[in-house]
Structure formats: C-alpha cells, structure tokens
Amino acid sequence: EVQLKNSGGGLVQAGGSLRLSCAASGFAFDRYAIGWFRQSPGKGLEGVSCIMISDGVTYYADSVKGRFTISTDNAKNTVYLQMNNLGNEDTAVYSCVQLQYCEASKFGSVLTWGQGTQVTVSE
User: Fold this and answer.
1) Is 4 within 8 Å of 24 (Cβ atoms)?
2) What distance in Å separates the CA atoms of residue 22 and residue 81, rounded to the nearest whole number?
3) Is the Cα dihedral 29, 18, 120, 38 positive or negative?
4) Per residue in 113-123, pLDDT tens?
C-alpha cells in the first residue's frame, strides 16, 4: 500500500521558517517524484514544488522561488520542503503527493495524495 506521511506544518510568524516532511512507503521511491500542492480558502490548488527522486530535477512555482527548497533523504524515503521567509500568502493546507514525474517546468500526473498539513503564517 502506498503511503505518504506528511508532517511539519504549524503556526509561524511572518518572516519565519518551517520544514515539511513527506515520508513515503509502499513503492519504489527512486522511480517516481514527490511534490507538494497547497490550497487556501478562496484560492485554487497550486503546485508548489516537486523533485524527481532519480535525478534530482526540481520544480518551483514562481511564488516560492528563492524561498522554498525541496530535498530528499533517499535512505529514509523522505522528501523535505524547507520554507523560509514565509508570508501571509503562504498560509494554506499543504499536501504531499506521489507524482509520475517532475520536470523543471511542470508536475507530472498525481498518482497518490497524502494527507494535508496546515501552515499558518501570522503577522
């Protein structure tokens, strides 16, 4: 059974940092990509970042470039999303996903959704 355990959300002040973790199991980790979507009230679903495990190719939405960094620990089958200089616009539910692939310009098809974790940025 494919499982994605998403953790690390919480409340942070504007300008602060959080790190999300997505621990994957139940599939060949290095054959797929892992990414995060986010959604906030009144806004559509946004693909934030993804990484192709096999070759490390990454994608970042324009809204997070220069502030967010995605990385992997292949020994732990875990992907991290380091989020720095957070602002109110980053408040959302963040969900990690298993993707068919990740390219520098786009997400591949979503294969599995993990549970969401709330990130709230306060003034």
Assistant:
1) yes
2) 8
3) negative
4) 999 999 999 98
Give the C-alpha separation, 24 to 2, whole Å.
7
Q: In terms of Cα–Cα distance, which of 107, 99, 88, 78 is closest to 19?
A: 78
H-type alpha helices, 9-121:
none
Collapsed DSSP state (helix, strand, coil) of residue 88:
helix
Q: How far is CA 39 from CA 2, 26, 44, in A?
A: 23, 26, 6
14: left (phi > 0), else alpha (psi -120 to 50), else beta?
A: beta
Can you tell me the distance from the alpha carbon of 29 to that of 33, in angstroms, rounded to the nearest whole number?
8
Residue 90 neighbours by CB distance under 10 Å:
22
Tell me phi and psi for residue 28, to 5 degrees. Answer: -75, 100
Task: Kindly tell me if the per-residue pLDDT of 41 is higher than 90.
Answer: no
